[in-house]
Amino acid sequence: MAETLFNLRLPLPSDAPLYNNLLCDPEITVWLEDRLQYPISYTEVETFVLGKAWLRWAIECDGNFIGMTGLEDYSPQRGVARFFIVIGDRTYWGRGIGQGVIDSVVRHGFENLGLRKIISNYLEPNKASQIIHDRADFVVDGHLRKDCWRCGTWVDQILLSRFRDE
Known about the structure:
Blueprint: E1 7-9, H1 15-22, H2 26-29, H3 42-50, E2 55-61, E3 64-75, E4 80-87, H4 97-111, E5 117-123, H5 127-135, E6 139-150, E7 153-163
Parallel strand pairs: 4-5
Antiparallel strand pairs: 1-2, 2-3, 3-4, 5-7, 6-7
């Protein structure tokens, strides 16, 4: 698989309506957090994209906004933050962008921000998320069994982490 080049940049006001459109696609939101399983307001999306955040980037590819990533839930006392990624433009799925993004964000978190640990999570049926976390050397810390209702069944949430010294 040839890797497609991407750019991580600060979100722009023009990204908010694009992200809002991506979040209207149930194929995008199905494996995202529970609050995104129901329609949310444009104001909520705009606040997420443009609001105060510790580290939030837009993902751009071929000059197009295709999603969001970053580190959130930062705990300075513990040196921990939570990784997230949403590649919402399905035409860019399967091109290696998710792997490149997770590698870049994790490297930045450890090398530039001094984090000691990065945590993450995904829902078990999401094989693409499992693969990028495995390749980025995240370790499974546990399962929240039958934690989220998706596609007519309860699915497990997988909790992961990676330490700077691993």
